[in-house]
């Protein structure tokens, strides 16, 4: 009985709860209905008279502009309530415009949308909006024209020729107050928004074209004048030696000095500091001129794009909608933000492409103008293309992570073209180096390409002084250095080996006094020494490696040269020592060697005794003259003297080694019992004065 009563009571409770939930739903539905009806009444209550300001209030008057904006906000909210998707995906960034979340689908997508009054109001609102947009486009066309005229006037009246972005601010200041209206156009009438942007871009094209041409002309006029003869002295192509080599030594020496002077003058750091971008004569070098032009015009281009993005609201990164923009500032207080500030990359790529298209119209001339400027630099001096590449890469690094798609694409295109031309330029230099081994007639002295490279690298490194080592240009130049140097040293060895009758280390029958064999060593010594003395590695790995290679070449051929020239003053003594040393090395006892008739103590004393003080002094004098003849007629007298001293010091060291060898043979073979003492004092006297 109790269970039945409890079950009945439970059913009653469930029924009552269900009735309560039903009442709650009914109440909620009534509230929603009331809100929908209120929204419907509010949306449809707007009359044509309420929007009269859109047709008659003056846009050029601040009060009239405020009246227009108030009416337009009313119209905007009503239109968005009917159809929130009217402006596309960009139009709905927030609900602050008065659109309730419950109405996010709009009246058009509800049963109310079928009501005749809703359809009539929607048609009226669209018509009012279209009429206003037509009026706005016509008015803004005049405003854009006035703004460009004001900018042109400011540019024309400028007392200073220095580039000043504030000249463009004068025109922009006339436009900022209309920025919310442009946002309305973007959200409600994308076709007319695009038309406004077209009007703006077309009117601004001639302003920038004229300004940029004047900037480039002024910089080129101020550039240092350089003759092709002057700059060619740094290039391998101008020094390819001809079969009939009739260049006087004096003329070659003057060439070397002139090349060194020019190389050292190319020392302007591309670190972005205008104060450093001056040559020693107070004028810009051609590559500096290019860098200065970029410093002047690229900020103007970036600011122009940022103005387009801000004024035309061509971004999805700004979350404000039209009512927000109107409420933020009164028309008289509206002004732009910092247009110099780098902006983030635009996520909406379609919108970004539209901005880029506008930039391409405004700056359609830029590619040709900058290409012409690059060509002007290269016509003066191809080597300065390195500086142009560095200037481009510096700018590309600054804007690579920004919204500047137009500039990025333009600079990458120019850079790619110039990089290809630079590689071809290096190919020409390498071809000239390799042709030297065919054309050269006089295989003597420092070969032209060895003489040129120190000045070539000095010029390049002075151009790159101050450039960020992380830029691609550093790796590009290092790779080209490696190509050039490999070609140089390969060609040098071929030139040395192609001397007639050269026979180095070809066996025991080889004549140690073979003139051509000596010339082989002399040529390599002179060139390796010149490279080491003149090339400043500047801490660059590629140059350090090639200096190490040159050092190895110098050491190897210095020893071979010394071994050859020492045969004349010390030939018989060396032959005797070498014979005994070879037997000792094979393990033969000293007593057995001394027992040989040809190596007896008496023979030893006689051989060594022939090299008394007089003979040694005479041999050293002859040797010094010979070394000076071999190495004393280089293009640079200072380098020549240093090399002669370096070789003679090696000769002196050789004489010292001979004394030690005699002592070892005396001890190991003859038990220290000999009648001769090596004239050490004469050796020291004979080589005195070296390095002074």
Description:
There is one protein chain. By secondary structure, the protein is an all-alpha fold. Among the domains are: 1-33; 34-195, no CATH class; 566-686. Helix content is 68%, strand content 0%. It has 25 helices and no strands. The chain has helices at 2-44, 52-56, 62-82, 116-157, 166-172, 179-188, 190-222, 228-232, 249-265, 286-311, 322-328, 349-362, 366-380, 385-399, 405-439, 448-463, 472-497, 515-534, 541-565, 567-585, 590-594, 601-609, 613-631, 637-669, 680-686. Helix 3 (62-82) packs antiparallel against helix 4 (116-157), helix 7 (190-222) packs antiparallel against helix 10 (286-311) and helix 17 (472-497) runs antiparallel to helix 18 (515-534). The relative contact order is 0.06. Mean pLDDT is 83; it is low at 89-103, 241-258, 271-280 and 500-512. Residues 3-80 form the Exocyst complex component Sec3 coiled-coil domain. Residues 85-107 are annotated as: Disordered. It comes from Verticillium longisporum. This is Exocyst complex component 1 like protein. Keywords: Coiled coil, Exocytosis, Transport.
